[in-house]
Amino acid sequence: MKTKLLLLITLLSVTLYGQDVEKTTFSLNEAVAYGMENAYEIDYANKDVEIAEQRVRETTAIGLPQVNGAVDYQNYLKQPVSLLPAAAFDPYNQIRDLDDYYQVTPVPGNPVPGAPEGFIPINFGTKQNISASVILNQLIFDGSYLIGLKGVKVYLKQGENAKSKTEFIVKQTITNAYTYVLLVEENLSILEKNKTVLESNLNQTLKLVENGFSEEQDAQQLQLTLSAIINEINSTNRVKASAYKLLNLGLGLDINTPITLTETLESLLVSNLNLGLTSQDFDITNHIDYQIANTNKESSELLMRFEKSKYLPSLNGFVNVGTAANNDQFQFFNNDQKWFASSVLGVNLSVPIFSSFSRDAKTQQAKIDLLKAETQLTETEQRLTVELQDARNDYQFAVESYNISKDNMALAESIEGKENTKFFEGVSTSFDLSNAQNQLYSRQREYLESILYLINSRVTLENALNIK
């Protein structure tokens, strides 16, 4: 029984652990999809949208009932004293009525002849007081609130647009980083092949030198070329480590996480060779940059309306319900303590009259900002049109450059092979072979660069066409 229980726990642990393990094997599409869920920039964009949603809730709540409670307790350590004229009390009953008062001629220092002089100190109220109240406030009308409510919805739309823009950037970043890793790997493979060929050539040349069939400088020339290749391999290995870290960063993975890429440079090339993109239809109003500029224009329009709404009056209603108790001792919760209820219902009307032209200045600023936003929308439309044409041209040129670079590399390989044969047949010098090898290495680098340029220009064209 214990064995079965232990086996069950082990299987459960393995299952749960397997669910938490991060994905580490990616095709390009899988890498982009993973980045759309886990990239740091996507996380920031999602949080910005969530903040905008809460801002909508916050602004909406301003126009809904607001309820607040208050409890006020006072304990006079020393009660304030008020002074009342002693004559007001008439303790000797010398003034019978008002007629007597007005018939008597006042004298300085004693306003009423026969009445007591000076003032009497008196404490009003009790030493301790407590009150509790509940206040309900309701906005009835406020033009700026109605405009502000529309404004936060545009603010939310701006956050969503920014997220869409971020998705395009993340896709481009991951695609470029993924391609760069494959490019570095392919470059290492080519360099290793070149190294193998050079080592074989050097060994054969050393044997020829030993037997007197070749000069020592031929071996030295090959040694120089081999050393350069080895140095480039070491440098590329360091670049490879950085390239993987950069890709992990774009994916939202820990930079030290080992990952495996299932694509090859050749398969990536095949999927990116599509000249049909250069003639694909394009609706500029669907482009994210156009939508961002258009949303900014809507925001500026609402800002102008918001400033104009400040000329309108605002109306608020309120209800205040409370109760209070007074006592010289803290005995407010005794059964015989009397509480006195109160309530009030009212409205408050606020009418803007004169602001020393402050409102007018803000309205004019908003109008200028709207004109600026309209100009930016026009500029964005023009810029996107130009960028699309440039992207189409670049992509077409990239395809042509790739085909030329591929053919040139094949020619360079053929020339290097012939020079290699001629060198060992003794009809060519080591300098001729070295020149052919360097030409081959240069064409190989150009070939790899053309692949990177092709894939990058493809992503740029897709962004220009607003293709996700």
What this model shows, in words?
Keywords: Cell outer membrane, Membrane, Signal, Transmembrane, Transmembrane beta strand, Transport. Belongs to the outer membrane factor (OMF) (TC 1.B.17) family. This is TolC family protein. Residues 1-18 form the signal peptide. This protein has ten helices and eight strands. It is of the alpha+beta class and 468 residues long. The chain folds into two domains: 26-63 and 142-312 and 352-464, Outer membrane efflux proteins (OEP) (Up-down Bundle), CATH 1.20.1600.10; 83-122, no CATH class. It has a four-stranded antiparallel β-sheet with strand order 2-5-7-8, with no helix packed on it. It has a two-stranded parallel ribbon with strand order 1-6. Helix 9 (358-424) runs antiparallel to helix 10 (430-464). It is elongated. The chain starts with a helix and ends with a helix.
List the defining traits of the structure above:
468 residues, alpha+beta, Outer membrane efflux proteins (OEP), 13% strand, elongated, disordered N terminus
Would you summarize the structure shown here?
This protein has ten helices and eight strands. By secondary structure, the protein is of the alpha+beta class. Belongs to the outer membrane factor (OMF) (TC 1.B.17) family.
- What string gives the helices and strands in order? HEHHEEHEEHHEHHEEHH
CATH class of the largest domain: Mainly Alpha
Poorly predicted runs of 5 or more residues: 1-20, 91-107
In quaternary terms, these chains amount to: single chain
Secondary structural class: alpha+beta
CATH hierarchy: architecture of the largest domain = Up-down Bundle
Report strand %: 5-15%
* CATH third-tier fold name of the largest domain: Outer membrane efflux proteins (OEP)
CATH superfamily annotation of the largest domain: Outer membrane efflux proteins (OEP)
Radius of gyration: 44 Å
Largest sheet, spatial ordering of strands: 2-5-7-8
Number of DSSP strand runs? 8
Q: What is the domain total for the residues?
A: 2
Main location: membrane
Family: Belongs to the outer membrane factor (OMF) (TC 1.B.17) family.
Subcellular location: Cell outer membrane
Keywords: Cell outer membrane, Membrane, Signal, Transmembrane, Transmembrane beta strand, Transport
